[in-house]
Amino acid sequence: MRSRAALDSPLAIRRSAMDLLARREHSYSELLGKLRQRGAPTEAAEIELDRLVEDGLLSDARFCEAYLYARSQRGYGPARLREELRQRGVAESLVERTLAEFDQDWSALAQRVFNKRFPEGRASDAAERGKQLRFMQYRGFGGFQVD
To answer: Which CATH number does the domain housing residue 18 bear?
Structure first.
């Protein structure tokens, strides 16, 4: 674990941010939070993150695209992804634009997720049907109709 004094210089802050970005894309807000946890002063961290944005090394748009792709591949729908991205500090307008441009057939994905979780199909019992709908809502498919 790094000591609080480890991120007392702009170079140390930039190096720490680059280390995090080498592992995966991060949103600006996420990266700022991680740098602050590691002891970087907020103002100094913001300056370095702004430089990373200018250099094209940090991009909320790129993070948003990568996040949508990875999470949709794991069976999560647009409502859940929208909320997760909002929690990670991505601007709502960017999330909406990226979702609109994202090449994903959400209905087909919802059907695949449903069929995988409930291979027996639509439940005849109202309580079971409720469980199925709650599962689909939890996964981010709010308007999904159980066939």
So the answer is: 1.10.10.10
Q: Tell me phi and psi for residue 81, to 5 degrees.
A: -65, -40
pLDDT bin (cut points 50, 70, 90) of residue 143 is confident
Residues 102 and 10: their CA atoms lie apart, in Å, by 36
CB 7, CB 40: distance < 8 Å: yes
Kindly report the pTM of this predicted structure: 0.85
Could you tell me the residue range of the domain that residue 10 belongs to? 4-58
- Looking at residue 7, what is its pLDDT? 80
* CA nearest neighbour of 20 among 63, 55, 68: 63
Q: Which residue stretches of the chain are H helix?
A: 10-23, 28-37, 42-54, 60-73, 78-87, 92-101, 106-117, 126-138
Q: Whole-angstrom Cα distance, residue 146 to residue 142?
A: 11
CB 60 within 8 A of CB 28: yes
Determine the Cα angle at 63 with ends 60 and 69, to 5°. Answer: 140
Q: Is the separation of the CB atoms in 88 and 29 below 8 Å?
A: yes
Q: Hey, what are 33's tokens?
A: 């939070």
